[in-house]
Design brief:
It is globular and about 75 Å long. It has 3 domains: 153 residues, no CATH class; 33 residues; 120 residues, CBS-domain. It is built from 13 helices and 6 strands. The longest helix is centred in the middle third of the chain and has 33 residues. With 328 residues, it is mainly alpha-helical. The strands form 2 sheets. It has a 3-stranded mixed beta sheet. A 3-stranded mixed beta sheet has the order 4-5-6.
């Protein structure tokens, strides 16, 4: 009876593993524009899912913790069963079998089911909220611990690193020998300069920022888009110094198809607020991590000092990039 209960426990844990894997894939692949549209229709689950998508790493890390817990627990219980019922002959077979079940039924099939599965993502919105609420504090502790370990390892490896000046000397030798092209040397030097560049040196000054009011309608906002060609705009509240977020033109187009009088504040996304003395490479990494293309630079007293976009940062390395939004 005990072994039957343990076997059932393994089955339940594998089912939970399948759920967590499917939930993770459904969450990361969900159509955000469709979620935004459903939220505008006051769909409570869509509103909750949209809020969770503001900080997706919290949900993803929490699901990873859950998945690891159930997979390890299932493997341990399966090991206990095999060691007691089949002795040493069964341990290898059970290990191989568990590996197969975890890979196929705990990862591959659930993720195939979850990818772009909008209905499933909406259905589990409350479950994801609960999982994040319970497990994210633990995930955050583990993440901090990992960062601390990596810092220690990084310090140990610093002595063996070649410094910037040595690399530049190597580049000069390479150009003279013909093993490195001048354009390649210039690009590498631009990357070194980029690492030392402060964001305040490359930002758009406040007087040149084109922003929109949170109370503006999507219809009037799209007229502004047609005049400027920009795809993203900072959104202000009470005054232009009160930047509360950003709006993307594709969100506005979708909202227009539902109700042309939709206010910009209803489709406003979060915007990163950064220190003017942060390095450009740190801002680029933060934008990649937060999956955003725009950041506002603020002073300690809250004054707007400028705006920086991902395009500005990339152009600092590769030079001017001409795209469909550039005028002239």
């Amino acid at each position: 009876m005990l072994w039957l209960m343990l076997a059932m426990a393994v089955f339940i844990l594998l089912a939970l593993s399948s759920f967590f894997s499917a939930a993770e894939m459904a969450f990361v692949s969900v159509d955000r524009i469709r979620i935004k549209g459903e939220a505008l229709k006051n769909n409570n689950r869509a509103i909750l899912l949209e809020k969770l998508l503001e900080k997706p790493e919290e949900v993803i890390n929490s699901l990873a913790i859950c998945n690891n817990i159930v997979n390890v627990t299932a493997s341990v219980i399966a090991g206990v069963i095999s060691a007691n019922l089949f002795k040493s002959l069964g341990i290898g077979a059970i290990t191989a079998l568990m590996t197969f079940f975890v890979i196929v039924f705990g990862e591959a099939l659930p993720k195939a089911f979850g990818v772009n599965n909008y209905k499933f993502a909406i259905r589990i919105a409350r479950h994801l909220y609960l999982i994040r609420k319970i497990f994210y504090p633990l995930a955050k502790i583990l993440h901090s611990f990992s960062k601390m370990i990596l810092k220690i390892i990084k310090k140990e490896n610093e002595k063996s690193k070649v410094d910037e000046e040595e690399i530049k000397i190597m580049l000069d030798i390479g150009v003279k020998n013909g093993t490195i092209e001048k354009d390649e040397k210039k690009l590498i030097e631009e990357i070194f300069d980029f690492n030392d560049t402060k964001v305040k040196e490359i930002c758009i000054p406040p007087d040149k920022i084109v922003s929109v009011s949170e109370n503006e309608t999507v219809e009037s906002f799209l007229k502004k888009f047609l005049k400027t060609g920009y795809s993203r705009f900072p959104v202000y509240g009470k005054s232009k110094d009160d930047i509360i977020g950003m709006v993307h033109v594709k969100d506005a187009i979708y909202a227009l198809s539902i109700d042309k009088n939709t206010k910009i504040k209803q489709i406003t996304r979060n915007i990163i607020k950064i220190d003017p003395y942060m390095n450009a490479d740190d801002i680029l990494r933060e934008m990649q991590r937060r999956k955003t293309h725009m950041a506002i630079i603020k002073s300690i007293d809250g004054k707007i000092l400028g705006l920086v976009t991902m395009e500005d940062l990339i152009e600092e390395i590769f030079g001017d990039i001409k795209d469909e939004h550039d005028l002239g």
